[in-house]
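Dear colleague,

Thank you for sharing your sequence with our group. We've completed the structure prediction you requested, and as agreed, I am returning the results in plain text so they can be pasted directly into your records. Please verify that the sequence below matches your submission; if there's any discrepancy, let me know and we will rerun it promptly.
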Amino acid sequence: MLSSAVSSGVVNRVVTSIPSPEVSYIDLGPLRIHFYALCIILGIVVATLITNRRLTRRGAEPWVVVDIALLAVPLAIVGARVYHVVTHWGFYFGAGSNPWNPFEPGSVWAIWEGGIAIFGALLGGAVGAWLGCRWTGIRFGSFADALAPGILLAQAIGRFGNWFNQELYGWPTDLPWGLEIDPDNAAFPPGLPDDTLFHPTFLYEVVWNVLGVVVLLALGRKRVFQWGRLFAVYLIWYGAGRVVWETIRIDPSEIILGLRTNVWGAIAAIAVGIAVLVVQTRHTGDVPSPYVPGRRRADADALQSQDTPEDFVDVSDPAASEADTTAVATSTAAAR
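Please find the predicted structure tokens below.
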């Protein structure tokens, strides 16, 4: 598609561009379905499927991940929304706002309009996953490692929701992949020509995340990336990308010491990832089992047809049990 040149000098030539969708929802009778929500739901489903396969291959009960998700997903959504509202306080509680009316635009409840933050989702989801792991007997670090590629792919899928909502784009650009934004969009910067193109930061993150999934899957085949270390790599990879994308986004954000709050969130993710890698150097062997001592399945269905014998370790060995207990304490401490 062709866009005309932007007379302000931001774009001085005719370039190809990425169009934004004309609609962001569909109406089915009285029910309005937002594509943003569908992207989030699809991401959750994909992450669950990937995590289930990875966790069962390590000896966990098939679909135990669903039991963990029953706590992790709702708390992740709550954490994501709370984080976004807190870091955009002026938007929801500024002059003329009506934050508590769920039927008004700009309400704190109007999550379908967008506005969930991954760093809040990680915090809330970590609490829910830890509780779910306690409930099911799954080792928190083993669950986190199984989750790492899936959650990164889910984030890539979820970013298309921002595309449908025409939100979270970057600076004006004259690059061939500039993103078209409707000039009547509430977030369109005032004073710019209607045909100004913007950096498609959603697409940058999609590409970065998909590449990260490939890296995580490759590293996950190496025995060294156990004990929560693969999830640590995920935190470092995702945090590094977000530092870059956040610096070119132009949507409003609270600024702390000259940096956007999400930049600080990304830096924190990198720091936590590095800390986990350092702390977990104390573990040199394989994880004995995805279950904590005393919680492993003992029924006839424990060994599933899709699993291989090398995925299982005899946890009746006292030395293995002692290592297992130490690992649980370390993984839990690293997650706090």
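Summary note from our side: DSSP finds nine helices and eight strands in the chain.

Kind regards,
the structure core
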